[in-house]
Every structure is written in C-alpha cells, then in structure tokens.
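Human: Not sure, check this?
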Amino acid sequence: MLKSNAPLRALREHPDLEQLKRQAKELLEAYRASSPEAIAEVTANHPRYAYKPPFPLTIMVNPVIEPLDDETAQINEGCLSVPDLRGTVARYVNVRVRHLDRHGKEQESIRRGLTAGTFQHELDHLDGILFLDRVQDPKTFTTWEQFNRFHREDFLARAREIVTRTGS
C-alpha cells in the first residue's frame, strides 16, 4: 500500500502520481525478485496464517476503509513488525475499500471477514498504528508459544466460523 497526502479523488491529477506509479512498479519488481523464503513471510499462505483466506497481491494508493455496519469480530492478530507477540483486536467484519490502483484508476471493493480485518491491519500501518495500539485488553497479549499452547484451537474455531459465515 502506498500513501500520498492528496485525497483519493484529487490524486489522479496530483503531481506525485507518476512517482507513486514508479514506486508501485519498483515494489512489484522487488517482490518478484525476492527469494521464495522472503515471499513466504508476507503471503497469506504462510503456515502460521493458514486460517487466512488467500487474496492476490494488490497495490493500493491512498486506500480508504469505510465500515459498512457496526459488526465487529475479535481477531487475535500478530505482525511481522512485532515478532513473537499476539493480541486480540476488534475489527469490522464488513468494509468498503476505496483506492487508486497502480495505474491511477479508482477502485472500490467490499471486503468481509478475516480479509476485512487484514485490510484494516495493513491500512493501520500507513497511519503509524500497530495492532498492539488497538488491543483493548492487555491480558490478551501472548507470545506465539503461549498462543499455540493455550489459545490457537479456540481462535481457529472462531476464524473458521467467520470465514464460513462471510466467505472470507
């Protein structure tokens, strides 16, 4: 995801658009040139995140997320920016995502379930927010070892229910 200070509607004419297009192209080239091990760390098919439905690599410029309703789900999240730590975060279950694609064309999609949570998590990074900033109950913080030992099965059951109900 790339972010400019220009609002979504104005970005098409914004002078940074060409620079953002170049950055997007460079990101794609770097991603494709990465070793398989590096790619595995950031894909939805990572063994640690097997419960997450896969979605294709997507470049978004100035993404904006809008909740479609008040429904939230408690999602136990981790992040490569905070290794070996997890915590429970409330995320909207149904969101609209608006953004420009890497060609400057406006895009809009509806994301549901765990995928909606992933989009919210990633967009938070653009605003300097980590999942741990969103954890409301610090008692939910665990290491990966504690999560796997005491919480994994319960979370996987909730994740399966979310995916079954929302389709993602």
